[in-house]
């Protein structure tokens, strides 16, 4: 009986020691080591790829954001502020309805098939809005010139980038709204167009937040 109790105590003590060691190694040492290596090698990415402007963090290069006018009374959705380059639609985003203590935005896709009526209506309305918003006197936008990323959301709804074609489509409207020359705005788009990763992975892209920061600096003489 005493041997049995002694064995039980030894087993419990061995388990407790293993728990303590593994907690320290896996819960303290390993996270600190990984964090230290990440901060030493890739501090920007480790901290969320933050983008700063005028000394303040204004967003992340990995997460898209809207550029809208203040929401007016009676409106459910704010109208886009057309002096800025606009991102992709974000139809897949949802709001938190479970724990309402926090105001959260839930990322996600629409999960609609190509022949789904809702998706067709969204795309049709988005294309009409892109044509209307970006047509300026003497330079109407043709519906056939509207690229796919201008009317469809990404899988997460948080894509921070647009195609160079969509950025170029917005140039004349942005130039007119900010009293800039078209060539000035085109140059901004060229400067903020990133090519394929390693020359063959993905597609050329333009980060909307970085482009709008540069636009703001140009407008304000920065």
Describe the structure.
It is a single chain. With 222 residues, the protein is mainly alpha-helical. 44% of the residues lie in helices and 9% in strands. It contains 6 helices and 7 strands, in the order ααββββαβααββα. The protein has helices at 2-41, 43-46, 117-134, 164-177, 182-191, 208-219; strands at residues 50-53, 56-60, 94-95, 105-106, 161-162, 193-194, 205-207. It has a 3-stranded antiparallel sheet. α4 packs antiparallel against α5 (182-191).
Residue share in β-strands: 5-15%
User: What is the helix/strand order?
Assistant: HHEEEEHEHHEEH
- Describe the largest sheet: 3 strands, antiparallel
Number of strands: 7
- State the strand order across the main sheet: 5-7-6
Condensed summary:
By secondary structure, the protein is mostly helical.
Which characteristics define this entry?
9% strand; 3-stranded antiparallel beta sheet; single chain; 222 residues; 6 helices; mainly alpha
Question: What is the topology?
Answer:
Layout lengths: L1 H40 L1 H4 L3 E4 L2 E5 L33 E2 L9 E2 L10 H18 L26 E2 L1 H14 L4 H10 L1 E2 L10 E3 H12 L3
Antiparallel strand pairs: 1-2, 3-4, 5-7, 6-7
């Amino acid at each position: 009986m005493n041997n049995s109790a002694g064995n039980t105590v030894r087993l419990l003590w061995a388990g407790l020691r293993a728990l303590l060691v593994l907690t320290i190694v896996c819960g303290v040492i390993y996270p600190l080591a990984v964090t230290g290596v990440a901060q030493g090698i890739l501090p920007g990415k480790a901290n969320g790829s933050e983008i700063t402007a005028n000394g303040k963090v204004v967003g992340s290069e990995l997460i898209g954001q809207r550029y809208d006018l203040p929401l007016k009374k009676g409106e459910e959705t704010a109208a886009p502020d057309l002096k800025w380059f606009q991102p992709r639609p974000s139809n897949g985003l949802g709001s938190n309805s479970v724990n309402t203590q926090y105001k959260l935005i839930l990322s996600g896709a629409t999960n609609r098939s190509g022949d789904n009526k809702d998706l067709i209506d969204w795309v049709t309305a988005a294309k009409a809005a892109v044509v209307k918003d970006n047509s300026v006197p003497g330079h109407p936008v043709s519906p056939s010139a509207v690229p796919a990323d201008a009317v469809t959301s990404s899988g997460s709804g948080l894509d921070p980038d647009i195609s160079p074609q969509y950025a170029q489509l917005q140039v004349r409207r942005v130039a007119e709204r900010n009293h800039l020359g078209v060539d000035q705005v085109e140059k901004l788009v060229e400067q903020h167009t990133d090519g394929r990763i390693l020359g063959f992975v993905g597609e050329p892209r333009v980060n909307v937040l970085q482009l709008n920061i540069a636009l703001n600096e140009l407008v304000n003489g920065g």
